[in-house]
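Continuing the series of single-chain predictions for the mutant panel. This is the parent chain; the variants come on the following pages.
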Amino acid sequence: MTRILSVLAALAAMGGWAAFGGAQTRVNFATDWKAQAEHGGFYQAVATGLYARQGLEVTIRMGGPGIDNQRLIAAQAVDLAMASNNFFALNLLRAGANATTVMAAFQKDPQILMSHPRDDVTTLADMRGKPIMLASGSVSTFWVWLKAKYGFQDSQIRQYTFNMAPFIVDRGGIQQGYLSSEPFLVRQESGITPKVFLLADSGWPSYSCMVLASDRVIQEKPDMVQAFVNASIEGWYGYLYGDPAPANALIKRANPEMTDETIAYGIAKMKEYGVVDSGDAVTLGIGAMTEARWQDFFDSMAKEGAYPADLAWRQAFTTRFVNKRHGIELRRAP
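Parent structure:
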């Protein structure tokens, strides 16, 4: 599949080769899961030749079960890797892996909790003391924040195995999910429209859909990193405010599980909740990051013991390649 994407990128690039005098710089970019609407801006940049016009031949290495992006970027097996939240970058920093976040495509992490329609749960705080189906990997990430902010306890945890059936049959059930995934699946499989609680809208400070580069790549190829960031930003503007069909064709080819309906739902939810284009991105451009927000995240997690207080957290990211309002003229009012 990555070969297919490379070929498509090369075909799209043919018009741009002359401007760069021939061969382009090859870039391997690993995503954090199977191709989906939440990766749309990157696929748009491949499909419409945005990377090619920046002199890049980008190969997207699709993620999935058993693929560990943290190991890939730490071992420098890829040039760039997608990170799902701030923990990814801070964990690599703590491990001395020499990788740095260079952009955050999502201002809001699409992580949610959802419940059946019920009168006794209207806020996240109402979930305190109630059973919650949670994946094992979430216990050391956003669950830490939920315990600190809302007093959740580990005794509430029930195992979530990415099977919708237990939630559907349990009318008192509460479950973690992704804004554009689990609610859609529940409605599709049962007709139930769950109540959705986006953690970011209740204060969860993590970025998402972040791009990390190895420090070696940043030092040796800063122009390549900037070119990738610029084209990715343009890709996201094009995917949200232009015609997403080119990216969607690649997404469906890479991941046949994706249907037109699923992708359309994902795009609609990203727009509705301002996942990509909100907050600092409105004034600084898509991909924006700020030191204040990184500090907010680190301070809250260090307070809960997730990180030592003296960790040099500023080394987990750089704003060198973002906050330049690049492509912001492509923005359209929602």
